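[Q] Does anyone have a clean structure-token version of this?
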Amino acid sequence: MQEKLRAVSRRRTILFGLVALILGAIVLWNGNLVARLGISFLSLYLMGTGLSDLFFRFVLRRKEVSSLAAFWRLLIGLGLDLLNDYTSLPLHTILLILGLYQLFMAFIYGVTYFLFRQNKIKGGFRFLLDTLIYTVLGLSTIIAPSADRDLQFVFLGFYLISLGLSNLRDGFFFDNDEDRHTLKRRTRISLPIVIAAFVPAERLNQFNRFLQGRKEQADLAESLQDKSWPEEAKEGFSSMEVFIHTSQTNFFGALGHVDICYQGQVISYGNYDPFSERLFGMVGDGVLFKVEREAYIDLCKKESQKTLFVYQLQLTKEQDQAIRERLAELDDLTYPWEPSSRLKDGKPIYPYHLKKDLEAEIYKFKDSRFKTYFVLSTNCVLLADSILGRAGTDIVDPQGIIAPGTYQAYLQYELASKRSLVLAETIY
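[A] Here you go.
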């Protein structure tokens, strides 16, 4: 079964890489044609599904099929096809979306640059440069989509080619275990952040569908995949875990959260001081806490209504030592913080609860980038990557922005391959 899953994952990675590579090349050749064909296929899909649902509803008498939704899909598909044939509105809408996405990225880089300046941290110039580039591109595309159309397609084409080559490399070397013990990091081209952000929620939906087909649902602590390694092969290795949180309670819960667990102690970073929040809660003092593993898992399941995807990592002595050194560096950057007992919305704040009931160690940062938390860049994933990066995890994002979903997609890839970095996934 393990070999079959591995083979499927390998073929899927190669196929995705080929599709992205070919599509990227076609976009560079004629992006306008690709966009119009894509819109045509979308309209045909909407009309096809609408007609099939109407057939099921009125001919086969399937009452669970919504006739109203079917009519809407049919009308939207027909309208989209007509607009695509006789106007440039659908194409301009795509360009408008690309422009808005670039302005969104400019906002992220701009806030990050401001926080670098505020905390007197070196290296912020690259974020200023990215802010200016993305602002100019985004605004010019929104103001004059026809003028910037070819330039946008060039960027999109090169991105798709890079994404395809990255996945082809992963696929062809899927079972290559040659350099698993090195601390070398390579650049991995990831999905756009607006797509990768929803990977944890989709993984949770997959697990829920898995449970619906089972009679035994009492214990959610299911080990879904576990690599079998002989004990003698594990000598000289130590264990570490990565927690990916997700929930269906709200939008931000669906986006997920990342923690590190080392030697039975969970290390978590986030905006845990609500009294320091600003910019609609996206920015605040960076808080790090350390807490006992089992107590924390119980808290997440029972009180926070979260599902935890726990990935067990196997570290060599060299990797373990590098991570120890990084944790010591982080300790030097922090100072103990006593959470306020003041109530927020009628309840004690989260770190006060951790300190009082779980005896957690709570810290704030004296300096460094982590002194100020920003949900879209200096977040839990960046701290986790700053630790795991010392072990050579192949998850470097060229833009420096990594969503929890990006990390989970990488861990799932490592779990499916024969490499020994990720040994098992357990769901709580």
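[Q] Thanks! Anything notable?
[A] Residues 177-184, 214-224, 229-234 have pLDDT under 50 and may be disordered.
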